[in-house]
Amino acid sequence: MAELLEYKCPCCAGKLEFNTGVQKMKCPYCESEFDIKTVVEFNEAAQNASGGEMKWETQAGGEWHEGETAGMGVYTCQSCGGEIVADSTTGASKCPYCDSPVVMTGSFAGDLKPDYVIPFKLDKKAAKEALNKHLEGKRLLPKVFREQNHIDEIKGVYVPVWLFDAGADANIMYKAEKVRRWSDNNFNYVETSYYSVVRAGKIAFELVPVDGSSKMADELMESIEPFDFHKDAVEFQTAYLSGYLADRYDVTAEDSIARANERIKKSTENAFAATVNGYDTFNTESSKIDLNNSKAKYALYPVWLLNTTWNGNKYTFAMNGQTGKFVGDLPVDKSAATKWFLGITAAATAVLYGLSYLLFH
Question: Which pLDDT tens digit goes with each residue over 86-105?
């Protein structure tokens, strides 16, 4: 015996029942009524907008040619375990991520060779100026952050990045509402109309970045985006590493797929939601996104990093080495904050006292 389909109410998701009195499908919970054709179309649209496949081809990077890695050493952080690659003329003494000492553990070998690199466009002087500007006007900032020795610890690091290309086929259903209000001499009225809105189509994504370093927080790397790949990316050559550090990737392309899927799905949903107009409110009811022609590339992106510690808390500053976009959280000097608060309170009290004197005298 065939299993009966269960039709849900587009308004409240309750189970619809056929009502012989009105010859329509009726919801016993919200009492909404629908003709059979509307319910069938809604059910089919809901089925099309569920699930989704996201599969990737992750054959990114290439092989190193003989002699390319000559003179490049691997430095291992004694604290976070990160591995930094640097040439013999640059070297490394501290980890760019946690400022702990690093020791050279051997010559660089293995790993995939990057497909592309965006060379540093901004130098250390520009990074210092950006940091100073970031600190300007911060009255509650601890003095230690203004000391030159911390500014000098800014390090230029090439961060490993997996770049994902994909086409997305999306089918998304929204539950939307229009509300009409009016009044007469006796009552105020509110009429709410409910709609099922379907958006379906294709959208292409190119070079969606996911950093390949567990030490570089995804949120921090994404906060200094965008990097302009088409403007400055070139085929990778070891010469671009001279004078800079390069983080050795420890997150593979395969392990980065979940993050890439998350970014692409969110961007797709935002793009489709922007087309839902003319309603007072709407919410996503179901979403199906399939990826196709999905491929990955391996690149190095330039980042200026500064890590420092204040009262046991770590603070990280990062600047896009191509565009100059600068981000970083700042600590608060509690002593200065207390004095500032007391000053504001005293000033407010004086103002109130002055007003009361004028009002009552």
Answer: 876 676 778 888 878 887 77
Q: What is the pLDDT of residues 3-19, one digit of tens each?
A: 446 677 777 667 777 77
Listed by start position, the domains of the chain span 1-48, 72-166+206-257+293-330, 334-361
Q: Which two tokens stand for residue 162?
A: 């997996």
* Tokens describing residue 10: 């587009």
The Cα–Cα gap between 141 and 147 comes to: 12
Q: Are the beta carbons of 146 and 23 closer than 8 angstroms?
A: no
Amino acid in the structure at residue 165? D
In the predicted structure, residue 232 carries a pLDDT above the cut 80: yes
Question: CB-side exposure of 167: number of CA atoms within 13 Å?
Answer: 5
pTM value is 0.74
Q: How far apart are CA 41 and CA 47, in angstroms?
A: 10
Q: In whole numbers, what is the pLDDT of the chain averaged over residues?
A: 81
Max alpha carbon distance in the chain (Å)?
A: 92
Contact 241, 72 (CB under 8 A): yes
- Mode of pairing for the β-strands spanning 245-247 and 83-87: antiparallel
Q: Tell me which residue of 72, 157, 132, 79 sits closest to 314, measured CA to CA.
A: 79
Task: Give the DSSP per-residue string, 46-96.
Answer: HHHTS------B----BPPPTTTTTTEEEEEETTT--EEEEETTT--SB-T
Q: What's the half-sphere exposure (Cβ side, CA atoms, 13 Å) at 171?
A: 13
Which pLDDT does position 153 carry in this prediction? 78
CB-based contacts of 50: which residues, under 8 Å, 6+ apart?
286, 287, 288
Amino acid 311 reads N
CA atoms within 13 A on the CB side of 275: 12
Which residue did the predictor score with more confidence, 306 or 352?
306
